[in-house]
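Action item from last meeting closed. Structure (467 res):
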C-alpha cells in the first residue's frame, strides 16, 4: 500500500506542465488516505526560531538556522509511533519557504544554512516507506498576499510555488492549504480563485488530494472545496459521531503548533488521550488523525517528544483498512445561487428567503409558524448550466433541532412551460449534495414537506462541476 514509483511521477510532471491528466478515481484516493489512519504533522519554519505561532514576516531569512537538521530522525520517530505518513509546513503564514524557490520569495536559499528542507523531509520519509504530504499557506505576510491586496502577480506567485512543490519532489499524496477563505485571513475563494488553483494542482499531480482547512466556514457533512474534510481539534472542531466523509483531524502533541523553548519541560498529551480519546474513535468515523510533533531550533525532535511517540506506538497498532467510504460530491466551483433573487412561500417578520442563499451557513430561512410545507424559488438571472444541487439543514445547531424536520423534498427547474423534477427524496442528511444530469435553467426551486413546524434551510446550492 505504501510503495509507489515517486521518480516516475516527477518525470511525468516535467513532461506535462499544461495538459490536464486523469489520475485514479477520487474515491480510491480518498480510501487510500483514510486507510493510512495516523500521520505526523511537522510544524517547522521561521516561527520555530521566534517562540511564536506565526513567524515575524520582517525577520531576516538567516534567522532560520537549524544547527543539526535530522529529518531521518523525524521519519524514524513517526514510524515508531505507528504513523504511516507525514506533512511538512513548506510555507506558513509569514511566507518563508523551506525550499530554495526560484520565485525570489524569502526562502532557505537565501540563508547560510541553504538546505532544501522539503527535499530532506520527503527523502527521509519515503526511505522508511512513509507517505508524503505538504502544507502550504495561501496567506503570506512577507509577500503581502492579504485580503483586498490580491493581484494577478500574487496569484501567479502561488501557482509558481505550487508548481515547484508538485514537480520537484515526486509524488505528493496530500496538499493541505490554509489561510484561505478563513475568518481570520479573510482571503476569499474569489480573490485567490479556488477552481483555478484546484485545476492547477490536479494538472500537475492528478492523484494529489487537496485538503483546505475551512471547516469553520462550511458544514461538516460536505466536501466543500476539499477532497478531504479537515477538522482542527485545537480550534474546537469536532468530527460528528456519524460522519462518513473522508476526513483528517489535526491536533498538537505540545501546547502549540511550533516548538517553544518551554516545551522541553512542558506537558505533552497523554498516551491514553491520543489513542483512546482521539485516534481510535476518529478512525471509526473515516477520519485520519494527524498529530503535530514540532522539531526544535536544532531541527530535531526533542527527547520528550520522541519518548512520547514511542509510547504511543506501543499502545496502538495499525489495524488495516478502514470501513469502505461512499462516494461524495466534491464542490470546487462557486454557488450559482448565492446572491441571486429568491422568493419563498412564506416567512416571518425579520426572516427572509435571502438567508437561504446568502453564502452564510449560519443563517437560515423558515416558513411562517404553523406551516409544514413550503418552497424557495431562485432566479439565476439567465439560463445557467449545472449538474449539482444541494440543501443544508441546520441540524444540531440548537438544542431543539437535533434531528431533521423535513419529511420529503424535491428540486425542480422551469423549462419554459412547466416545472420539471430534477431530484428529491425523503428526509435528507443535514448536508445533502446531489449530482444530476447536466441541465440548463434560469429558475430553480426547492419544495419541502415537514414532519415538524419551522423546518429551516441554511443554504441551497446550484453548481456546475467539471466531469
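Sequence:
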Amino acid at each position: 500500500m505504501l510503495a509507489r514509483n515517486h521518480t516516475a511521477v516527477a518525470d511525468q510532471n516535467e513532461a506535462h506542465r499544461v495538459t490536464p491528466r486523469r489520475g485514479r478515481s477520487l474515491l480510491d484516493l480518498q480510501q487510500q488516505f483514510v486507510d493510512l489512519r495516523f500521520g505526523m504533522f511537522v510544524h517547522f519554519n521561521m516561527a520555530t526560531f521566534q517562540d511564536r505561532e506565526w513567524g515575524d514576516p520582517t525577520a531576516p531569512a538567516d534567522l532560520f538556522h537549524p544547527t543539526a537538521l535530522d529529518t531521518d530522525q523525524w521519519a524514524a520517530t513517526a514510524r515508531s509511533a505507528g504513523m504511516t505518513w507525514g506533512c511538512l509546513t513548506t510555507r506558513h503564514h509569514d511566507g518563508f519557504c523551506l525550499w530554495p524557490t526560484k520565485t525570489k520569495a524569502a526562502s532557505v536559499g537565501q540563508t547560510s544554512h541553504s538546505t532544501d528542507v522539503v527535499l530532506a523531509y520527503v527523502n527521509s520519509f519515503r526511505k522508511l516507506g512513509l507517505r508524503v504530504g505538504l502544507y502550504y499557506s495561501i496567506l503570506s505576510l512577507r509577500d503581502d498576499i492579504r485580503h483586498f491586496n490580491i493581484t494577478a502577480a500574487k496569484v501567479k506567485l502561488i501557482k509558481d510555488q505550487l508548481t515547484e512543490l508538485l514537480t520537484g519532489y515526486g509524488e505528493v499524496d496530500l496538499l493541505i492549504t490554509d489561510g484561505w477563505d478563513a475568518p481570520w485571513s479573510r482571503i476569499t475563494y474569489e480573490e485567490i480563485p479556488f477552481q483555478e488553483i484546484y485545476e492547477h494542482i490536479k494538472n500537475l499531480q492528478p492523484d494529489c488530494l487537496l485538503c483546505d482547512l475551512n471547516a469553520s466556514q462550511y458544514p461538516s457533512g460536505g466536501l466543500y472545496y476539499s477532497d478531504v474534510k479537515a477538522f482542527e481539534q485545537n480550534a474546537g472542531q469536532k468530527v460528528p459521531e456519524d460522519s462518513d466523509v473522508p476526513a483528517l483531524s489535526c491536533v498538537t502533541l505540545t501546547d502549540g503548533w511550533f516548538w517553544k523553548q518551554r516545551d522541553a519541560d512542558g506537558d505533552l498529551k497523554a498516551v491514553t488521550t491520543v489513542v483512546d480519546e482521539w485516534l481510535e474513535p476518529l478512525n471509526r468515523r473515516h477520519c485520519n488523525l494527524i498529530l503535530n510533533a514540532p522539531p526544535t531550533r536544532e531541527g530535531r525532535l526533542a527527547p520528550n517528544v520522541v519518548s512520547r511517540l514511542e509510547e504511543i506506538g506501543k499502545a496502538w497498532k495499525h489495524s488495516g483498512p478502514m470501513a469502505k467510504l461512499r462516494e461524495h460530491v466534491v464542490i470546487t466551483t462557486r454557488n450559482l445561487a448565492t446572491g441571486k433573487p429568491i422568493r419563498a412561500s412564506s416567512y416571518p417578520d425579520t426572516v427572509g428567503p435571502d438567508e437561504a442563499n446568502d453564502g452564510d451557513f449560519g443563517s437560515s430561512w423558515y416558513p411562517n409558524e404553523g406551516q409544514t410545507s413550503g418552497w424557495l424559488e431562485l432566479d439565476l438571472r439567465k439560463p445557467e448550466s449545472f449538474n449539482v444541487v444541494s440543501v443544508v439543514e441546520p441540524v444540531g445547531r440548537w438544542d431543539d433541532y437535533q434531528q431533521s424536520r423535513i419529511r420529503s423534498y424535491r428540486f425542480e427547474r422551469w423549462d419554459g412551460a412547466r416545472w420539471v423534477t430534477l431530484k428529491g427524496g425523503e428526509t435528507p442528511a443535514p448536508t445533502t449534495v446531489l449530482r444530476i444530469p447536466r441541465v440548463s435553467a434560469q429558475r430553480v426551486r426547492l419544495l419541502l414537506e415537514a414532519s415538524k413546524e419551522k423546518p429551516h434551510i441554511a443554504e441551497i446550492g446550484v453548481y456546475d462541476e467539471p466531469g
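Note appended to the action item: Residues 6-315 form a domain with the TIM Barrel fold (CATH 3.20.20.80).
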